[in-house]
């Protein structure tokens, strides 16, 4: 499944690898109470952000940004053949959904110029690499992969303590292939695509802004996972590196883009996954864009 839309003068494609009920909402968001969930259950089902078992529906996807000079992939999604024992739906997955998504928008792996890794969790780096003759090789052989230095250093140090499969199979092979550019999280790729630091979910997570001045659009990565965190920005996700920082990042992000014309492209919100931020009581909501 793909969706193509315009952000300023750029064309953006959603490449959806998976969309389903993921984790019980009360487990995913530890500060969420049953009363808060009950109060919001009805609107969370339009679009379907909560399934009939009260699991949060998450979309796992990559965004591809086409400028007049570059084809840029933001986040490498889940991937195939990866050892992900704690995630049965991801573990040793073998399908052509992602590759077919590329083909559907007229692209091959050779067309990608840059891969922007907002952070280094398993569902954002999986297609960084693919298995070829028993070895992990860069999926996008012509691309430069942009890693935040602080983020990369943190995860390499964690991997030194105990092997982390996403780092071993989807990050280190990029370094060994010398396809990585180690950058700061406020890096500008060009005059249309820039990074902004949005830490908290991980130590140096970044979001991606689109358009001159960054006003046309923004791709969020995991600074926010579900519309419930827009209504209550203080709801931290269960594995946030720094829950207080992630909350502060969400407040700043939502205040910055509230009541503007900036299209917000969310990593995990249910389809259509993009919209405009509006104020809603003491919090915020996404007015989805379907066209």
What would you say this structure looks like, in words?
This protein has about 290 residues and is of the alpha/beta class. The protein has one domain: Metallo-beta-lactamase, Chain A (4-Layer Sandwich), CATH 3.60.15.10. It is about 25% helix and about 30% strand. The chain is built from nine helices and 15 strands. The strands form three sheets. The protein has a seven-stranded mixed sheet. The protein has a six-stranded mixed sheet with strand order 10-11-12-13-14-15. It has a two-stranded antiparallel ribbon with strand order 6-7. The radius of gyration is 18 Å and the shape is globular. The two termini are about 15 Å apart.
Quick tags:
291 residues, Metallo-beta-lactamase, Chain A, single chain
Q: Considering the protein shown, what is the CATH homologous superfamily?
A: Ribonuclease Z/Hydroxyacylglutathione hydrolase-like
Sheet-strand content, in percent, reads 25-35%
CATH topology: Metallo-beta-lactamase, Chain A
The biggest sheet amounts to: 7 strands, mixed
Architecture per CATH nomenclature, i.e. the level-2 architecture: 4-Layer Sandwich
Q: Tally the helices: what do you get?
A: 9
Broad CATH class? Alpha Beta
What fraction, in percent, of the residue positions are helical?
Answer: 10-25%
Structural class assignment: alpha/beta
The figure for the number of domains is 1
């Amino acid at each position: 499944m793909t969706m193509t839309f315009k952000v300023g003068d750029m064309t953006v494609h959603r490449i959806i690898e998976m969309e389903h009920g993921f984790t019980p909402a009360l487990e995913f968001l530890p500060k969420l109470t049953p009363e808060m969930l009950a109060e919001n259950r009805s609107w969370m089902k339009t679009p379907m952000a909560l399934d009939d078992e009260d699991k949060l529906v998450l979309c796992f996807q990559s965004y591809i940004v086409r400028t007049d000079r570059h084809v840029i992939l933001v986040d490498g999604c889940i991937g195939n053949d990866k050892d992900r024992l704690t995630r049965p739906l991801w573990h040793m997955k073998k399908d052509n959904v992602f590759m077919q998504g590329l083909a559907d928008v007229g692209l091959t792996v050779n067309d990608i110029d840059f891969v922007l890794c907002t952070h280094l969790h398993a569902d954002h780096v999986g297609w960084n690499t693919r298995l070829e003759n028993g070895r992990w090789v860069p999926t996008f052989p012509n691309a430069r992969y942009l890693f935040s230095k602080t983020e990369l250093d943190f995860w390499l140090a964690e991997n030194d303590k105990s092997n982390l499969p996403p780092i071993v199979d989807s990050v280190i092979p990029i370094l060994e292939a010398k396809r990585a550019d180690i950058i700061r999280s406020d890096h500008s790729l060009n005059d249309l695509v820039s990074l902004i630091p949005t830490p908290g979910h991980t130590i140096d997570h970044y979001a991606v802004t689109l358009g001159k001045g960054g006003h046309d659009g923004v791709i969020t990565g995991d600074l926010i996972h579900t519309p419930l965190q827009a209504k209550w920005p203080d709801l931290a996700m269960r594995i946030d590196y720094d829950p207080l920082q992630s909350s502060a990042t969400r407040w700043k992000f939502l205040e910055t883009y509230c009541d503007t014309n900036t299209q917000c492209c969310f990593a995990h919100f249910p389809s259509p996954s993009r919209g405009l931020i509006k104020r809603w009581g003491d919090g915020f909501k996404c007015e989805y864009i379907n066209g």
